[in-house]
Amino acid sequence: MFARHRRLRQSSGIRDLVRETVLTPLDFIYPVFVVEGENIKQEIPTLPGNYHYSVDRLPEVVEEVHKAGVRGILLFGVPDYKDEIASSAFDENGIVQKAIRRVKSFSPELVVITDVCMCQYTSHGHCGIVKDGVIDNDESLKFISKIAVSHARAGADMVAPSDMMDGRVQAIRKALDQEGFTHVSVMSYSAKYASAFYGPFREAAHSAPQFGDRKTYQMDPANIRQAMREMEADVEEGADILMVKPALSYLDVIRWARDRFDLPIAAYNVSGEFAMIKVAVQAGLLNEKDAAMEMLTSIKRAGANMIITYYALEVGRWMNGK
Hints:
Layout: H1 12-18, E1 28-35, E2 41-43, E3 51-54, H2 58-68, E4 72-78, H3 95-106, E5 111-116, E6 129-131, E7 134-136, H4 137-154, E8 158-161, H5 168-178, E9 185-192, H6 199-205, H7 225-237, E10 241-245, H8 251-260, E11 265-269, H9 271-282, H10 288-302, E12 306-309, H11 312-319
Parallel strand pairs: 1-3, 1-4, 1-12, 4-5, 5-8, 8-9, 9-10, 10-11, 11-12
Antiparallel strand pairs: 2-3, 6-7
């Protein structure tokens, strides 16, 4: 006798009862781009449905986040001023610092996570200090730690270093603890690959490197065992959450991480992955809701506890029937 697997697919009710992976808005973190100026809400051409917001317009997006049932945001700053050492990134009145204070003033319960990096703030567009055309890892740690502390001082719940410098989790954890921010969590971009899928983000954040590329510090897409070593190091250095970025092309990395580590696993559904669906929908090739839900479900099924996605608000509204 052969097995009749279809018996458990006969109706939507049965399919709901036996579903192994359930996606909810509580799984999502929404990226928010903040710019200098006033009364700005401008759609990002490369990320349809996502916007650049000035600090005074942040209540609008936070209201949308709450309506969608999403509990956390990831802040990215787009500064007016850039220099060799990313000084505006750790300025107490920098764009991200002002954004944190504004959000926390009217929505203290919202989880505010901040991207900790230098690329948007440096004149050269790289994620660390450049000396003689080379990224100086250890010198960069000093500045990355200063950025993290300034975000914590402004009220961030969690900092997320995305620079991929060796030792940055340890440096940040030590700096936070020394300043009395033992309660601030570190979500580490542990396995961040040198991916082709970052293009729309770099346009949105004005963060493309002005020379060379980031392959000397971001990971080779061909490597997975190396990703596990990166994650092991971050665990030892004090990370609270491990991240895999991108998500869709690295589902196997998410699965390995989930099986190997007891810490929560985050996955970043990056701009290129989002944009591919948007373009295909515009061309009439895909049903957007079905494609987005399938993509995000696959990321959770692979083992992610939380998903950073530009679809957070749209999918949240779909799930809530709005």
